[in-house]
Specification:
Strand order of the largest sheet: 2-1-3-4-5-6
Helix content: 40-55%
Largest sheet: 6 strands, mixed
Strand content: 5-15%
CATH architecture of the largest domain: 2-Layer Sandwich
Number of helices: 13
Radius of gyration: 30 Å
Mean pLDDT: 76
Structural class: alpha/beta
Order of helices and strands: EHEHEHEHEHEHHHHEHEEEEHHEHE
CATH topology of the largest domain: 60s Ribosomal Protein L30, Chain: A
């Protein structure tokens, strides 16, 4: 029997090399592909005995690749193991439904790989009694998932918070592991460096000088590692606080924008026009994909216009919509959704606002708002007019972060949420 062969599909070179070394220890030949598209091209002329598939990759992701491979009769029988930081019954159920055999954690242990290869009959049983973190999709866990009342558990705020907490813990573990690895490699390189040439003998040799270069190098390395870890954790904490503030703002926007006290407490009927100074300009945030001039925003516009009409105010009310630009995942066929906060900005499928860009000029003004504007014009004999327009995209409420490699989708989308708004001004 010839050597068994595995295909590793991962956009991370370091992850591919690490898993390849583990597999080669079990005398498994390894081929690799840096994208799902490259893997499918490889499978057109090769038949590995097992595929290890990453989840998050540019272009086609791991679950989409599993579905494509299982839908092709020529490759449908090849066993596929997902390995990813994704956890939870919902993800396991998705992987199982598409045909994956199981899910390995991103930080793979040799015992996990040994168990997988043994269960696929690719190597003799080398398992140790050490507890493995491999989680099969089938078995008791999958049965419990199938027997859960009402099917899969709903995606709630609580489950999302738990998931993001697990992701943070995994990221911190990765940083700590990489820090230890880099430190060990630097020390090994310093130990393996060639010795300095011997200095010429002197008549009266003094005591051996202290290895100052070694001490300074170690101190600088330790300081750099500590500073990097503190900066990284501080950045994560700042992003967490910023996310919580953005969530509170979105909740307030969903409940209806807050306006000035003159709208909240009507002035007397004979109040002079200058008493409206506090309400000459109001604004409201618009959640991504929501009707900018509908829902809670329409209620605020109606209250504002009727108050002006009751107080016999004359002039023009400008209602301007501003579209924020969002980091989105998806495609034009299935639609787009806001990307998860933790992914890199460079992995966004689209940066823009397709739901707003697809609207025609007539669709931007819903029928309910058009009827409201007509009523205001008729009741005031056009002394109070209303105009609806689209604002300049360059008019920002919050600047977007620079499009750098370390910029995340969450940082970008917080600015997009602040800029996705309407403004109402009396002139």
């Amino acid at each position: 029997m010839g050597a068994k062969r595995a295909l590793i599909v991962d956009d991370s070179k370091s992850a591919r090399l690490f898993l390849a070394r583990v597999l080669q220890d079990f005398e498994i030949d390894v081929d690799s592909a840096e994208s799902a598209e490259a893997a499918i091209d490889y499978l057109s002329s090769n038949r590995p005995d097992v595929i290890f598939m990453d989840h998050q990759m540019p272009g086609m992701d791991g679950l989409q690749a599993v579905q494509a491979i299982k839908n092709d009769p020529r490759t449908a029988t090849i066993p596929i193991m997902m390995y990813t930081s994704q956890e939870g019954e919902l993800y396991l159920g998705q992987a199982r439904a598409l045909g994956a055999l199981g899910v390995l954690p991103k930080q793979i242990k040799p015992t996990d790989v040994s168990k997988v290869l043994y269960e696929l009959h690719l190597v003799p049983d080398r398992r140790t009694p050490e507890q493995s973190s491999f989680t099969p999709v089938g078995g008791a866990l999958a049965d419990a998932f199938d027997r859960a009342p009402g099917g899969p558990k709903p995606l709630t705020d609580s489950s999302l918070r738990e998931h993001f907490a697990e992701v943070r813990r995994a990221l911190i573990a990765v940083v700590d592991t990489q820090t230890d690895r880099i430190t060990a490699e630097v020390r090994a390189l310093l130990r393996e460096s060639p010795p300095s040439p011997p200095e010429p003998a002197v008549p009266s040799p003094g005591p051996t000088p202290a290895p100052w270069a070694w001490i300074i190098a170690c101190a600088a390395l330790a300081l750099a590692l500590v500073s990097s870890a503190m900066w990284w954790r501080g950045t994560r904490a700042l992003e967490s606080l910023t996310s919580q503030v953005a969530l509170l703002r979105q909740e307030r926007s969903a409940a209806g924008p807050t306006v000035g006290p003159a709208l909240a407490r009507p002035p007397p009927a004979d109040a002079p026009r200058q008493g409206l100074a506090e309400t000459r300009s109001i604004s409201a945030l618009v959640p991504y994909g929501a009707d900018a001039l509908g829902g809670p925003r329409l209620e605020v516009i109606g209250k504002f216009l009727r108050r002006l009409a009751q107080q016999n105010v004359t002039g023009v009310v400008d209602i301007t919509t501003f579209a924020g630009r969002f980091c989105l995942m998806g495609n034009a066929t299935d639609g787009y959704s806001v990307a998860p906060d933790e992914i890199a900005y460079s992995r966004c499928d689209v940066v823009g606002n397709p739901s707003d860009e697809a609207l025609t000029s007539a669709q931007r003004t819903p029928l309910a708002l058009a009827n409201l504007i007509g009523d205001i014009r008729n009741s005031t004999h056009r002394a109070l007019d209303v105009q609806v327009s689209v604002g300049d995209p360059a008019n920002l409420a919050l600047p977007y972060p620079p499009a750098l490699a370390e910029t995340t989708a969450g940082e970008w989308n917080r600015a997009g949420s602040a800029n996705n708004r309407i403004e109402i001004r009396l002139r």
